[in-house]
Amino acid sequence: MPAIKCVGILTSGGDAPGMNAAIRAVTRAAIYQGIKVKGIYRGYKGMITDEIEEFKTQNVSNIIQRGGTILKTARCAEFKTPEGRKQAHDKLMEHGIDALVVIGGDGSLTGARIFAEEYNMPIVGLPGTIDNDLYGTDVTIGYDTALNTIMECVDKIRDTATSHERLFFIEVMGRDAGFLALNGAIASGAEAAIIPEISLEKDQLAEMIETGFRKSKNSSIVLVAESDVTGGAMGVAERVKNEYPQFDVRVSILGHLQRGGSPSAQDRILATRMGVAAVDALLDGQRNVMIGIQNDEIVNVPFSKAIKNDKPINRDLLDALRISSI
Ligand code: ADP
Ligand code: F6P
Fold it and tell me: What is the pTM assigned to this prediction?
């Protein structure tokens, strides 16, 4: 296998706090190992439109604490076509890029996998998404910060919920995954979480109301994961207005607040460890793997597993929430 001389790095899909810390770690680890680094702007789009520049250690100074991504990010429809990927590959060749580190979510790593197979290019992925929905890693870069943001927001909304004795449905992100909603509910002392993983098994709203929820409380907070399956906070609130009109209901959708802000210490450390591990993996001849973390150990997870498998919800968390909110 020829030695890697130049690695390209990009961020793709939804931004997540800690992406900058990952860019910094990959850049510095590569330079440390004598490999050239090129920053590719705007995700896969920048490969096609040739927005590529060499990165020195100074390019990544003073960014570990910043949210978002200095490389910008984008969603790129052309990259989903063989013609778009060919253009992207031609540009990489012109720049002498012989390996890639892709930081992004499920979609971005799907693109990476297809590209790696089509062009036999070594690619390592880093799981960068607040959704925490990638299989093979206990946590993803950005998840901890988003969870902390949710907790702070819910703490504030609780003041109004308590003062007005209201039932609040707070919608959090997750793109069909309930990790933010479930752990956000536990962390903020909410009464319940409505998540897509459980929606098909039972009617979470009916169960919550019918098992005597609010017997001992005058206000309640329920976190709802955004999803067609849950109906989102608006859908759930609409149902309550029709079926349980005795409640004074309000909805709050946290939205993109959850994606921004300075990364938590956990996310900075995770991103740094994963960034260094990505370069190690490339040097070690690994290709088509996502760097994950399991029980505090760095692991290499084949793209095929990380993308295809659904990451399960830990059922103990459901019990912890149910019992702690009586
Ligand atoms: P995320 O990485 O946050 O899940 P998206 O699902 O929007 O975000 O994917 C980001 C980008 O990854 C897409 O805009 C596209 O460029 C690329 N991508 C996603 N799916 C594919 C695919 N099946 N083939 C090629 N590229 C893809
Ligand atoms: O994947 C991250 C995420 O924030 C999801 O939780 C959400 O569904 C989606 O991205 C929102 O995307 P956009 O910023 O394009 O509206």
Answer: 0.97
